[in-house]
Amino acid sequence: LVLTGANSATGLRSMPARYIFLDEVDAYPASADEEGDPVTLAEARTTTFSHRRKVFMVSTPTIRGLSRIEHEFEASDQRRYFVPCPHCGVMQWLQFERLRWDKGQPDTAAYHCKGCEKPIAEHHKTQMLEGGEWRATATSVDPHSIGFHLSALYSPLGWKSWAQIARDWLAAQGSEEMLRAARNTLLGETWVESGDAPEWQRLAERREVFGAQISEGGLFLTAGVDVQKDRIEVDVWAWGRGLESWLIDHIVIAGGPDDPQCWDKLTALLGRTWTHANGAVMVIAKLAIDTGYESAAVYAWARAQGFGQVSPVKGLEGFNRATPVSGPTFVDATIGGKRLRRGARLWSIATATFKTETYRFLRLERPSDEDRALGALDAPGTVHLPDWIDTEWLKQLVAEQLVTVRNKRGYAHPEWQKMRERNEALDCRVYARAAAWILGADRWDEATWRRLEDQAGVETRPAPQSAAAPESQEPAAPKAGTPTTPRRKRRVYTPNFMRD
User: Fold this and answer.
1) Do the Cβ atoms of 19 and 43 come closer than 8 Å?
2) CA distances (Å), origin 156, targets 96, 100, 153, 169, 212
3) d(CA 477, CA 480)
4) What SS3 class is residue 209?
5) Taking a C-beta distance cutoff of 8 angstroms, is the pair 403, 414 a contact?
6) How high is the pLDDT of residue 272?
């Protein structure tokens, strides 16, 4: 019998072993002595035994997306212990949602059968466990891999009672850390960080039929561009007061950055117009394009179009940024094979900040039909999605979640991680939002918003009432010590796309 720690690379690869028991794998460090994943190092010790080896992993799950045991369980046949109902005999695996109790009275907790809905008292548990059996609920990725899951609901009599589980759950309410511990230890489930995106099905139910290409509240357009190897994806968003937004177009340009025609089509998009509900036509005020892939080609194209309408951007991870967008900084660009020093302008954007904001906006509640009839408006930041957008795009929009990770020194910090391979819709949304920030939408005064409304021919907010002075009233005499020369008016910034 050889015992070793998960943080010792030497111990993990010191000798071959036919049987390996890995305990609490979710607590293992990311790397053992900076030589790689400790689980992978340990499994490598069994390779000489081929099909005769056995690797046994046990752990309390931790955070969704980072949990090793969750990853292994989802790749297995996911066996759960099915027990019979003492009333109707229906076989079922115990789920916390079916443990119910009277409000404020956890001692009344009883499990309700999914077949007959009758409450099952605690004293039936022994009979249920004796008549239970393990059943696979999924198809294993590896036919030689099996997985088992048990929660505290299966604790035998004299151990953890259902009433105690209910008390612990109620005691955890109001504390995110206690809820996390309860979900991990009582239910055997991973914890989902509060920054998670809403379900894509919920967004699908909220899709709307737009009466025009640009709804009445939309006052200017921005575009976010994500450059891929074989295509360029573009999302065009309309923005209104309070950063209310509407997705008005989704464009996929086939060809990739190596195809000149691909860039020609993107150039043509800069001059394309969309029609407002009131008949006004609008062009893209600012297009933000990612430089993460083929940055040289992006810089060359952006320089050719002019940086007034096009802004190359680079995403930066982390929440500890002084501002969500910084720059521009001058970077070298290669044009026609010639390197130009400081030939392009690059904006740096805190993608984590805009992702958090986007998911917060997506979770905003909508007014009911009754409230709308009484004049209620959508909350600032509301995201409107058209009925023509497909489910794949919606899944891409909610493809990431906020998880807590720890560095080598043990310090925890939040980080956005992808839960699926494709997330172009989210990236394009972030870039379009950054374009709105670069334009100054977060800092515009009332006069600027009113100018935009005048251009679109709409009035989204009542004009402030100003009392007009009577015509016969004489101007007031200046007070003593007050300069009589008129004060020079402050210069008001006007975006280029608003100038005649």
Assistant:
1) no
2) 16, 19, 9, 19, 62
3) 9
4) coil
5) yes
6) 94
Q: Report whether 393 contacts 233 (CB < 8 A).
A: no
CA distance linking residue 244 with residue 380, whole number of Å:
6
Please report, as a single letter, which amino acid is at residue 293. Y
Global confidence as pTM = 0.58
Cis preceding-peptide flag for 328 (omega within 30 of 0): yes
CA distance 294 to 314: 12
Domains of the chain: 9-185 (no CATH), 200-439 (3.30.420.240)
Residue 409 sits at the vertex; the CA angle it makes with 6 and 399, to the nearest 5 degrees, is 85
pLDDT in tens, 416-447: 888 888 899 999 999 999 999 999 999 998 89
- Are the C-beta atoms of 376 and 365 separated by less than 8 Å? no
Asked whether 281 and 214 are in contact (CB, 8 A), the reply is no
Instruction: Name the pLDDT band for 149 (thresholds 50, 70, 90).
Output: very high
Residue positions counted in the chain? 500
Which pLDDT belongs to residue 221? 95
| 27-36, 41-50, 81-90, 134-143: range with lowest mean pLDDT | 27-36
